[in-house]
């Protein structure tokens, strides 16, 4: 295993733990269905802005799902995994540039999948990644502009709020009215997450610029 890939696994584990802790430590009950406000989205936005779609997907999904399992909401763990995982994925893709983000997703899948690592497939995937990256001017770091961060936050909010609303209304038997009652609170949670995550991203990047290259599959090399 390459050093950079080992660093990716360590980084993912740390951010999963942080997401879990920030979900569990501060919980404000908001509805009769058992829903609560928490600070998970602050970690998810920071992770997705800083490290890209792979880390956002893993930290957001596994971190909140694990928090539900540990915090007495095991039935909601699959929904949290899906909603927050796809939230982190959407944020990372848009904030860093969709072409470059998709290239990194493909590279990450190839790195962890024996099937995709098969030489004929690997060469095709590498060619596709090169074309995707060629269409995105500049680096992922340069593409994380305030506008892209804002668009990433908006996309993440829509994904998270929408999946919770549909999931609770369709599969959890709480009724569409109760599911709708949680929408404003989920919007508030995402607003707080963005207000914390965006400034934190800029502060950390200013203090240590190379941090934005950590967790990127494009940096993985054997050796």
**Global mean pLDDT:** 83
Oligomer category: single chain
Shape: globular
> What percentage of amino acids are in beta strands?
under 5%
Number of strands: 2
* Biggest beta-sheet profile: 2 strands, antiparallel
> Strands of the largest sheet, in order across it?
1-2
Tell me the helix content.
over 70%
> What is the succession of H and E elements?
HEEHHHHHHHH
Radius of gyration: 18 Å
Judged by helices, strands and strand pairing, the structural class is mainly alpha
CATH architecture label name:
Orthogonal Bundle
The N- and C-terminal alpha carbons lie at a distance of 7 Å
Number of H/I helices? 9
Highest CATH level, the class: Mainly Alpha
State the domain count.
Answer: 1
**Low-pLDDT regions:** 137-142
Any idea of the CATH topology? Arp2/3 complex 21 kDa subunit ARPC3
Highlighted features:
9 helices, mainly alpha, Arp2/3 complex 21 kDa subunit ARPC3, 74% helix, single chain, two-stranded antiparallel sheet, 223 residues
Structure description:
- The protein has 223 residues and is mainly α.
- It has a single domain, classed as Orthogonal Bundle (Arp2/3 complex 21 kDa subunit ARPC3), CATH 1.10.1760.
- It has 9 helices and 2 strands; from the N terminus they run αββαααααααα.
- It has helices at 3-24, 40-51, 53-70, 77-96, 98-112, 119-134, 140-143, 146-171, 176-207, and strands spanning 28-29, 36-37.
- A hairpin with a 6-residue loop joins β1 and β2.
- α1 (3-24) packs across α3 (53-70).
- The radius of gyration is 18 Å and the shape is globular.
